[in-house]
Amino acid sequence: MPITLPETLPAFDVLSREGVSVMTPERASRQDIRPLRIALLNLMPKKIQTENQFARLIGATPLQIDLSLIRMSEHQTKNTAAEHMETFYRPFAEVEDSGEKFDGLIITGAPIEHLPFEEVTYWDELRRVFDWTQSHVQSTFGVCWGGMAMIYHFHGVQKHILDHKAFGCFRHRNLCPTSPYLRGFSDDFVIPVSRWTEMKQAEIDTKPGLKTLLGSDEVGPCLVEDAGHRALYIFNHFEYDRDTLKQEYDRDVANGTPINVPLNYYPDDNPAMPPLNRWRSHAHLLYGNWINEMYQSTPYDLQEIGR
């Protein structure tokens, strides 16, 4: 089954050309099926690129997905056209006031890692989002900074500044092969990493109810399950495209920002060579498993969520 997207959203054409099954809302309304309602709270500066990445992953399952785009109410993006934001995004305050509920919510990362959480301009509203998920969302997926912010809000786990950027493709281990979120996963695999902060496994271990599912000897915990809050927190970037790390590296080089060549990313670590995507299959597995678990647990009547 396809993902439902407005025909004018850039992701509609991008995914259609890639062979991903997409459907207009008009066509979806004629099907006698309740789609899963998944929202994307997009905190990344390149909104369209991020929309494409997550829509590609959640649109690859047998279920019909209805994707809604949400932004912070007062924060204004400088990197995406105002017309795009006005056409396709709703402010969280509007969603909150409407009382509507969602099967799933993805909260992205944000390029504000060096700031203490409390100094982020939209922190108070984001805390409202986290609390709102407990009564209005069946399952929440916090990604990179979004996952760190959620685990800090609900459990007080701190992020720690690294002395150098964790940047590249790092090997990770499957720490919980029986987890339904890891069906089909290999014992080890690579995941793109791009961050200046980390969560420490020893601190996660002190918090009841948290279970680390994926981790790396080099860059620490990656995927943490928080069953009590119906949430997953992932600190790395399965959603990245083949060239996303390259774009970040080329940007920093062009700006004169000190940056290491991303490790284990280019063939022979040579940035003159085109990189290869070696994580795509596991990315689809993880998000497909998340959607399947959500589908198995979510009530048919969305209003029953949180009751």
UniProtKB/TrEMBL annotation:
Species whose genome carries this gene: Gemmobacter aquatilis
Active site: C144, H237, E239
Function: Transfers an acetyl group from acetyl-CoA to L-homoserine, forming acetyl-L-homoserine.
First-tier enzyme category under EC: transferase
GO molecular function: homoserine O-acetyltransferase activity; homoserine O-succinyltransferase activity
HAMAP family: MetA_acyltransf (MF_00295)
Annotated site residue numbers, Important for acyl-CoA specificity: E113
Pathway stated in the Swiss-Prot or TrEMBL entry: Amino-acid biosynthesis; L-methionine biosynthesis via de novo pathway; O-acetyl-L-homoserine from L-homoserine: step 1/1
Protein's cellular compartments: Cytoplasm
Record-linked Pfam families: HTS
Gene3D superfamilies per record: 3.40.50.880
Residues with site note (Important for substrate specificity): S194
Binding locations of substrate: K165, S194, R251
Official protein name in the record: Homoserine O-acetyltransferase
Primary location group: cytoplasm
Underlying gene: metAA
GO cellular component, as recorded: cytoplasm
PANTHER family: HOMOSERINE O-SUCCINYLTRANSFERASE
Top-level taxonomy: Bacteria, Pseudomonadati, Pseudomonadota, Alphaproteobacteria, Rhodobacterales
EC number(s) on file: 2.3.1.31
